Amino acid sequence: ERYLSTRTYKPIPKQDTDIYIIGKIGQTLINLADTYYDDVNMWWVIATANPGCFEGWVNLKVGKEYRIPTEIEPILSDFKRLNE
Fold this sequence. Notes:
Blueprint (H helix, E strand, L loop, with lengths): L18 E4 L6 H9 L5 H7 L15 E4 L4 H10 L2
Antiparallel strand pairs: 1-2
Helix pairs in contact: 1-2
């Protein structure tokens, strides 16, 4: 049998370069990741930067502010180290 474990990623610090958006109808973590990172698999970066803002795979809450980190190389390096 195969078991997967859950890892908790550390909070992503705010940066002056972060982008802030307001949620609109139809926006999801996946389409934000595609828009800002050209990679739908990077949805977790946005979710981690906005703790407590998402409940499963649902649309963003309309009118709520979300933070999009733009300097993701350090985030990806930390993530890779955590999962080695």
